[in-house]
Amino acid sequence: MKRTPTDDMSDSYVLLPVMTQTPSRLSMGEPKIAKIIQYRSIDMVFFGLITKRRTFLTKAADAYREAHPNRTVHIDHNNQPISLAAAYAEAKVCLILHSYRSTSGGEYHRLSEFAPFGCIPVMENFADTIGIRVYERCGGAIFTNQTNMMAAAEDVIANIDRGSYNLGSKAITNWWKAGIHWEKILPTV
């Protein structure tokens, strides 16, 4: 919270996480109708800077591919909107692992990019417990720590393959596509 020059708390304001607003830079690649999640060709994706901490994902992806040779995982530093959009549209699970330490922000910019494509977010925990509850309940996100991230993603994929997400994934995708309408929320705060 930032105080105004008068230091009167009644005139204070809060900066909200605008990174979850739509449209994202990938909105041009969002399909009008998302592919049924069970029939998508990519099990997991992560696109971002591969920091020392995130090399965990590349090693875990290699182990996953070895255990599941006919499955696809993309862990890469890719900033090309067209290829990102194509991968997200085919992904069952989209991963988020913090760059440098476990105590970090919510990575809202990643959510705003991939969530409208309908993949299930498997994310490392962050400090915003209110946001976590909303993203779990409404957005279908799974929150975990770094150590359990791949196991959580594999559980989601197994449930997707069994058809457990077929009914719920459309509602989840529609929730993300609807975006956050600050103009309706702010007057109620």
Characteristic terms for this protein:
single chain; 189 residues; alpha/beta; five-stranded parallel sheet; globular
Topology:
Layout lengths: L41 E6 L7 H13 L5 E4 L4 H10 E6 L11 H7 L5 E5 L4 H9 L4 E3 L4 H13 L6 H11 L3 H4 L4
Parallel strand pairs: 1-2, 1-3, 3-4, 4-5
Distance between the termini: 14 Å
Helix segment count? 7
Mean pLDDT: 83
Q: What composes the largest sheet?
A: 5 strands, parallel
Q: List SSEs in N-to-C order.
A: EHEHEHEHEHHH
Q: What is the tally of beta strands?
A: 5
Beta-strand residue fraction: 5-15%
Radius of gyration: 17 Å
Structural class: alpha/beta
Spatial strand sequence of the major β-sheet: 2-1-3-4-5
Low-confidence stretches: none
In short:
This protein is of the alpha/beta class. The chain has helices at 55-67, 81-90, 108-114, 129-137, 149-161, 168-178, 182-185; strands spanning 42-47, 73-76, 91-96, 120-124, 142-144.
Description:
The chain has a five-stranded parallel sheet, with helices on both faces. It has seven helices and five strands, in the order E-H-E-H-E-H-E-H-E-H-H-H. With 189 residues, it is of the alpha/beta class. The longest helix has 13 residues, at 55-67. The model has no long low-confidence stretch (mean pLDDT 83). Helix content is 35%, strand content 13%.
